[in-house]
């Protein structure tokens, strides 16, 4: 197999060397024109006069001033609902072949996001770009002949009328290229098993049949799968089962909070590569080992805009006010939080995906995910984004020599005022809640000036509760489902937090 690995590695290096360097700004200009040109005869294109926009000398500026922002609810109510009534050519030519079901991290009701054939092709092409980028990583030749464990949602899609429905990871896995099927594990039969626990149990039983070189999936569910494999075979770590495991492609959430607990399941370090695949498209991937930031896919079916993340621009439900200013890639700055806006080949237009990002390298269009518009903890001016909360978790792990793979919190009013009430998921955290709370509060004050100011005013401090990590998994199973794209909400509103606390205490 080493000969095959050398051939594949050589082909990847050759493709990388022959692929011209992408100019992200120019690529984005071409993508916008392609989107407008393709959709100009749709109902949406006619309503917003795409023909006229295409004649403009300042297309990006006029595009932004002509078309309002849409979150899922507004675009679904005003436009996508027409697709469910049998209409075609609504926001994109024809009708979508798939709908990605996504409850995200905010509720039980699934969103139904159109996924067109053009988007399937775009996701596949972005995947090829990511594979090509592996030439930048120092991976041995034999890695390229090993199998890849892709742990997503079920590929057993639901047939409805003239389309199929499922989570985006299941849709993507059901459309993998023919040449990749020999490498893809757990294979089509197991991937179609709907029940998460049954699917993982089947993977555990058959794990030794496969020579896995790479893993791909959301960290929390990947950890559970590896634990199941380790326990079933009475092993000490996953490398006793898959000795050639060398790469983990993470996605969906920041890997940082999971790093310590994930590494505890390994026999030796592996290469971790971050990706950003959402129901709305393949947004970014880590393209080089010098950074853990991800490069936006700027030349492949998605046009990006960025709204400075400022409390004045965000409504209580996380959507944008109408007058919030947007900028294009050529005007972004380093280390500024932006609300990510997308227009895509699936017929999403100026769509608020709900994530906030920051640029770590403008020239390369490299970003990191900093949080969610709905999960920004700004009660009494504390201004804590998810990445700052993740940093606090990493501090606690080091401070108390522990692992905390899961957490959630709420700005909650108690009898004596507002507190940030944290629930930490850990099997190894031995300190009492008051000791942890004191250390956490001290860290947050030293690391975040707005939090320190808030602590001098209406914010009384933090309260900490430690529970088992599987409580979080059970919560997701009870409120959404296990596995796939399901992610834990890091910040909850008070009503949701009441449900959470009742669940924990039950």
TrEMBL record:
This is GH3 auxin-responsive promoter. GO terms for cellular component: cytoplasm. It comes from Bizionia paragorgiae. Residues 389-493 form the GH3 C-terminal domain. It holds the Pfam family GH3_C. One of its GO terms (molecular function) is acid-amino acid ligase activity. Residues 297-362 form the GH3 middle domain. InterPro entries: GH3, GH3_C, GH3_M. The lineage of its organism: Bacteria, Pseudomonadati, Bacteroidota, Flavobacteriia, Flavobacteriales.
